[in-house]
Amino acid sequence: MPAVSQSSLADLKPGVQGLIERLDLPEPDARRLMELGFLPGSHVQLSRRSPFGDPSVFRIDDAEIALRRETAVHILLRSES
Amino acid sequence: MSATASRPLSPPSASELQHRRVVALVGPPNSGKSTLFNRLTGMRQKVANYPGVTVEKRHGVARLRAGREIEVIDLPGVYSLSPRSEDEQITHDVLKGKVEGVPKPDAVLLILDATNLSRHLTMAAPIISLGLPTLVALNMADDLARRGGSIDVNALSQRIGAPTALISAKTGEGLQPVEEFLDGKLGAPPPVQLPVLQDVPACHAWATDARTRAGYRPPAPPHWTRRLDGIFLHPVWGPLIFLLVVVAVFQTIFTAAVPLMDGVEALISTSGEWLKAALPDTWFRALLIEGVWGGVGSVIVFLPQILLLFVFIGILEDSGYLARAALIADRTMAKVGLQGKSFIPLLSAYACAVPAILATRTIENKRDRMATILIAPFMTCSARLPVYTLIIAAFIPEQPVLGPFLGSRAAMMLALYALGFLAAVATARLLKSSILESVRTPFMLELPPYRMPTLRSLGLRLLDRSKVFLRRAGTVIMATTIALWALASIPLVNGEPPPIEESLAGTIGRTIEPLVAPLGFDWKIGIGLITSLAAREVIVGTLGTIYGMEADEGSVALQEALRQDLDLGGAVALLVFFAFAMQCMSTVAVVRRETGGWKWPVIQFSYMTALAYVAGLAANLIFS
Ligand SMILES: Nc1nc2c(ncn2[C@@H]2O[C@H](COP(=O)(O)OP(=O)(O)OP(=O)(O)O)[C@@H](O)[C@H]2O)c(=O)[nH]1
Ligand SMILES: [Mg+2]
């Protein structure tokens, strides 16, 4: 159900910061991601992609956490212009 | 470890346990709980630099200076009190006093990583709200200071309504308040209003506020980690370095270990000769020389090689590279329907399948976990190393393959490791596309900062490993070789042991020979396959005993004897058989325990044995 136009964590370019708007995931998964720091209102940055392109490593709250693209697309970013 | 040595030998009585204060160590994964536990109790729980090392509860006794004993429980790391996996469930249940035989803790020591406080402090709210006396220990003070971070602990303690201490479990600094807390003598600030616990954003906001008001200055980013990741996770260098490391490991295991192994071998054979000369010629001498020295001794020869392997595993685990390896492997794992998290247990299966199967507790998805348990024994565990080395050394001549970097023997070994891995992923694929199909659980893996492995921790790992190895040699291996020796010495003919082919062992061997003959094995190897059901390396001891008894003058070069009994086809078949078969009773037992019944271990054992047999058959056909 992700809105077609909205950008997600998966669209981040390395080094660019994004602001999380909401997590479009089932409650338990969303909850764990939030416990890891992926909270609405938090800033995330793409640290780097792993050698084969997926998963990617995200920097949030000074920690580095790896997520697969399939998860990252459900973490929606606030559109900043 | 004076604390360990001074502990009374008898287990504490029930009443003693009832009165003893019980303190649980809780905190997010990789925050240093086990390091602190070891420091407090003098024990040696596994510590390594990746999340999810501890997967069981562990009890220990901390002796305070005044002589009082406190029971401390080390627990698996958790991100919150809503468990998602088996290991987190354990922590949850212990804290709620729901585990039989484990007293509900009287107090909680919450260990947070001070360099990661922005996230870790969020956990303080749910833990404090449990209502048990809680000390919030901000660990890794050394790292925080080195990277220029700081915090006002007293201010923080007022903000969160719980005593707080800045400590370093590694260096031991700042442990005074921890001791006082264990003793129940540390005062607490007045409680504060806690956020709604189910509301993660609220807890996070609460923690951010507390932290900010306590003047938390986060440490500078770990520059080294970023730089190293730039190399190790580089699209080209990353995989290349990965490969280079693997090749180097195998080459070293073959070359550097050889002089050491020769040394051990010389020691064993000299002491054997000496013993033979010193003792009168009785059945007991024969048992000692042929059974114990010939059998157990031929396994002990491989200790240096196994230790070398553990040096590499230790560096991998302590440095933090392991989590990166899991990341690199995630793509492969995704293709077979598993995730990178499964790769961490699989990597530890290179040491031994038993802890690896326990480590699958960190996998949230039940079906993924089951699949990982089922494929773990395919990974080449260290017990296969003696078998592989022996056969490779006997049949593969050493020649350079990649110049001085890789010889043919190391290459063969590498191929066997690859074979095991391929069997594992193929089986995973099979399982995940049929009976264990499931929706995917999101992969989330925290990458710890790189840390320098210390000589001390590597040394301790080797010490512990040697103990485990020698204990195995002294129990399982000794028992099977002695039993074999006895079976090979009866029935007595005119008061003398019979020729070995006519002994009971020989008869059994020749009865099953038709079954193993298609693989190119004779009855002696057949016997070895039976005894190695107890543990893989037992086959080496068995052959050592059989050939020793046969040769009559005690020691005979094992490799020499093997070459007479096996042709190349049989040798390759034997290698392949060992790559696939599940010859390990401890693994069967742990699978039964972790899956809660006999169903899975029986399926697994049958599948692996069938695969081993068919593959061995094919290998023998191709190579002879
Ligand atoms: N610099 C520093 N490193 C530490 C300290 N305490 C622990 N470590 C390191 O942190 C890593 C994790 O330590 P563990 O004790 O295994 O952590 P844990 O909390 O038991 O982890 P899990 O069992 O996975 O939950 C290891 O590499 C330790 O050497 C400390 O005070 N300072
Ligand atoms: Mg631990």
Verbal overview:
The complex is a heterodimer of chains A (about 80) and B (about 625). Chain A is α+β, with helices and mostly antiparallel strands and about 80 residues long. Chain A has helices spanning about 25-35, 70; strands at about 15-25, 45-50, 55-60, 65, 75. Chain A has one domain (about 5-80): Roll (SH3 type barrels). Chain A has a five-stranded antiparallel β-sheet with strand order 4-3-2-1-5. In chain A, strand 2 and strand 3 (about 55-60) form a beta hairpin. The model of chain A has no long low-confidence stretch (mean pLDDT about 90). Mean pLDDT of chain B is about 90; it is low at about 1-10. Helix content of chain B is about 60%, strand content about 5%. Chain B has a six-stranded mixed β-sheet, with helices on both faces. Chain B has three domains: about 15-215, Rossmann fold, CATH 3.40.50.300; about 240-265 and about 305-430, no CATH class; about 285-300 and about 455-624, no CATH class. By secondary structure, chain B is of the alpha/beta class. The chains are: A alpha+beta (about 80), B alpha/beta (about 625). The interface between A and B is large, with 33 and 40 residues. Guanosine-5'-triphosphate (GTP) binds next to helix 3 and helix 7 of chain B.
Note poorly predicted spans of chain B: 1-10
- Count every helix of chain B, treating DSSP H or I runs of 4 or more residues as helices: 29
The rounded distance between the terminal residues' Cα atoms of chain A is: 24 Å
Strand content of chain A: 25-35%
User: Would you tell me the overall average pLDDT of chain A?
Assistant: 88
Strand order of the biggest β-sheet of chain A: 4-3-2-1-5
Structural class of chain A: alpha+beta
The count of β-strands of chain A is: 5
Largest sheet of chain A: 5 strands, antiparallel
What is the CATH class name of chain A? Mainly Beta
Q: What is the alpha-carbon Rg of chain A in Å?
A: 11 Å
> What bound compounds does this protein have?
guanosine-5'-triphosphate, magnesium ion
Please identify the structural class of chain B as seen in this structure: alpha/beta
Per DSSP, the total helix count of chain A is 2
Strand content of chain B: 5-15%
- List the domain count of chain B as a whole number: 3
Globally, the shape of chain A reads: globular
Which pair of chains forms the biggest interface, and how many residues does each contribute? A-B, 33 and 40 residues
Helix content class of chain A: 10-25%
